[in-house]
Write a structure and sequence with these properties.
transmembrane; single chain; transmembrane helix; mainly alpha
């Protein structure tokens, strides 16, 4: 097993890593902004534009998050041998990942709406960083969703492209009699 496969396996098994990654991304950006006084791109735009951006992002995240329900439908409707084996052996991990994707969609939208409510002309509450945290989580969770969807579709494709199994031969006591050469 390569290092890359090991990291992906650990990431797929523990959905809480997404929160850590998002927190590290935003914390790093906040530290750079506070230390250097630069790089706060959301402060460059007007408060009204930021509020519009927060609302639009909540809508987009909701729409894209809805795609995870399509992936769940694909997974639940597929019935190939490999997918049955995946369900049998990894059912708790899959359930945890799907649920985490749906929960994250709600959390991200709530973060966008909270930022929308807190932002004003002075932005004393640093609503833009709440928005950035929401977007960082959205980015990481969407990577998870795409990865999971790709894996499930790949397994489904393998199941769908396999030739159909040949039926087991049946015992036919009269076969020899019928196929005798004269």
């Amino acid at each position: 097993m390569s290092v890359g496969e090991s990291l992906v396996d650990r990431w797929s098994e523990a959905v809480w890593w997404d929160y850590v990654i998002a927190l590290v991304l935003v914390s790093g950006h906040v530290a750079v902004v506070r230390a250097a006084g630069r790089g706060d791109w959301l402060s460059w735009i007007d408060s009204e534009q930021r509020v519009s951006l927060y609302g639009t992002a909540a809508g987009v995240v909701s729409a894209i998050g809805g795609l995870s329900s399509i992936a769940i439908s694909i997974y639940l409707s597929s019935n190939g041998e490999r997918l049955r084996a995946v369900r049998r052996h990894y059912q708790s991990e899959l359930r945890r990942n799907w649920k985490a994707l749906l929960v994250a969609t709600a959390l991200i939208c709530m973060g966008c709406l909270i930022a929308q409510g807190l932002d004003d002309k002075t932005d004393l509450h640093s609503a833009r960083f709440v928005f950035e945290a929401s977007m960082a989580l959205a980015f990481v969770r969407f990577l998870r969703m795409l990865w999971l969807l790709d894996r499930m579709m790949g397994i489904n494709d393998l199941d769908q492209t396999d030739p159909p199994p040949r039926p087991a031969p049946r015992y036919d006591p009269g076969w020899r009699q019928r196929n005798r050469t004269p």
